[in-house]
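Below is how a single chain appears once it has passed through the pipeline. First comes the sequence as given, then the structure the pipeline wrote out for it. We keep one example in the README because the format questions we get most often are answered faster by looking than by reading.
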Amino acid sequence: MEGEIHNFIVVWTIVLASLCYSHTIAKFIPKGKSRFVAIFPIVCLFLILPLYLTSINLGCTTSFFIAWLATFKILLFVFGKGPLSSTPSLPLSTFIPLACLPIKFQKYSTSDNVETTKKATNSTFNLVTKIALLATLIRVYNYKDNLHPKIILFCYCLHIYFMLEIILIMVSATVRRVSRVELEPPFNEPYLASSLQDFWGKRWNLMVTNILRPTVYDPIHSMVANRISRKWAPLPAVIATFFVSGLMHELIFYYNGRLKPNGEVMMFFLIHGVALSVEIVIKKIFNGKFLVPRIISGPLALSFIIFTSFWLFFPPFLRGNTELKACTEFIAFLEFIRYGKLISPTNITCPLL
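Resulting structure:
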């Protein structure tokens, strides 16, 4: 455990130093190929650093923030695009958190006070609700032996959703108070999605959506718009976006479990890319003349997502005993809080699994 914490500190020290370098080098090298050559080693470094962490809680968060978000934001910055590019240049105190955290800079004004207070109240209520639901869900695990495996997988879906929202809401509140920047909302009530397009584009994991759009979707859309009808240009852009998303998920799964990828996660995202493309085609053909009622389209979309996740997403996720590692690590953390002693998660038995 001591070694993992030491590696975690070293990794993030290197990340901070690398971002300082990237921020400084941009003052002397203009955007474009020259800046790409100067910053490309940082991109490679960010893809390597997560390999030095083996825990689920520290490694998963670090790999997502560094290997995915920071890498893509830095690549946009190389060409003068994305949230890190600004005129005048962003101060280092803003550049670093924007680069490695899923946040957006928010300027406060007097007219925003009411809206900010309303958001804070809603955020607090949402946090309390999600904690209560997660606590209830954890109690359900006590009856795991009596539940159907598919029900357990559905509980894992809810667990991941609740945990992500709880963590990011708590971090959001802290960051908002300390540095006056606000985390982008990670989700927008995905259970209310009316279609696959609504789910993936406007409700689920908005941090990833907002970074994939300028790095993959927009460039591919612009490239193919000159070769095919602009009406159908979104289709290859959608497929390319889901392909890159699948590739990054395969990479993060490898960071967490160190298991050789077998393509299941990639297949999951490609299937959804194709299904979403079909949905777009149907919408364009009918052009609003025929609409499936939301009460039907919503459950159908969610059922398709859940079915395919049971089939392709969760098997590789659970193959490396991810849920067991996460549980023992959390118990080890609680033991440290209670007794001030670092205990290796390998010496702990999870009572829920």
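The CA atoms of residues 332 and 343 lie 6 Å apart.

See the next section for the split statistics.
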